[in-house]
Design goal:
By secondary structure, this protein is of the alpha+beta class. The chain folds into 2 domains: about 100 residues, Phosphorylase Kinase, domain 1, CATH 3.30.200.20; about 190 residues, Aminoglycoside phosphotransferase (APH), C-terminal lobe (Aminoglycoside 3'-phosphotransferase, Chain: A, domain 2), CATH 3.90.1200. It is about 45% helix and about 15% strand. It contains 12 helices and 11 strands. A 5-stranded antiparallel β-sheet has the order 1-2-3-5-4, with helices on both faces. Strands 6-9-10 form a 3-stranded antiparallel β-sheet. β4 and β5 form a beta hairpin. The longest helix is centred in the C-terminal third of the chain and has 21 residues. The protein starts with 10 loop residues before the first helix and ends with a helix. This is Aminoglycoside phosphotransferase family protein. InterPro entries: Kinase-like_dom_sf, NH2Glyco/OHUrea_AB-resist_kin. Pfam families: APH_6_hur (PF04655).
Amino acid sequence: MAPAPHVDLPQRLVRAQGADSPWLAELPELVRKSLTRWELTVERVVTPGGRGSLVVLVRRADGTPAALKLRATGAEAEAAALTRWNGHGAVRLLDAAPETGALLLERLHAEISLRSLPEAKANLEAASALRRLWVPPAPSGGGHPFTTVAEHTARAVDGIRAHVPEEARPLAEEALELRSALLADAPEDLLLHGDFRQGAVLSADPGRAHWLVVGPDPLVGERAYDLARLVRDRLHDLGATSGASSLTRRRVRKLADSLEVDRDRLRGWSLYRAVESGARHIAAGDRADGEMLLEFAGWL
């Protein structure tokens, strides 16, 4: 048996998972098994990488480039979504062993995302990329394996109430009321990316769409929920400008109109998602970013 390759774990991943994470301890063996299974050779680890997965650039036996991704959780759902999209607007899934968290993906240019473009151009390209992903979750209206927005957001309700500071309590209650109202009359059930932002859209090789989406945490629900994460992209830059509140509302209008999404529904989900993320950051000890997310929600 070949020894497990040496893998330098990105510090962002170690901080997010915790240095004593059992999954991190297993990663070298998981990498070795994946390399053996698909006859891959390692080039390098992608850094800084994500908080819930390790991505290793590899070569297949015939010399073609690929990317090996190992997820701590959620590999089954990502594999199912990528299979459903079948390379249309998203990275192509080449093979998968979701029981081990391993996905073999086509190689994109991880160093070139939409964040490398000016904001107006990036949002235009982001809207185009996102539009291609919004399809029924299964052909012909059949069953699907994906979590719904209603189920996913229900898990956050207690955390919002527990971790939003007292001074922001009215904002938290507004977010929860908006969630209930939006779910009560949801207009559609489409396959969503779930964590869509400019950094999740990477440059591809010639012969494919110029920009392709990666890293879904797929859900089933309405388009406004998916678009809401994009509204707060480049948040620190936005917060450093004068008139951040008016700029935020303008973003909502422009993004909603560009994708024919109801402005009020986009505003509502943007507010809810910012409050939910703010509560989660505060719970994890990241109070500065948590409070900035709550401030953003207040601009809406």
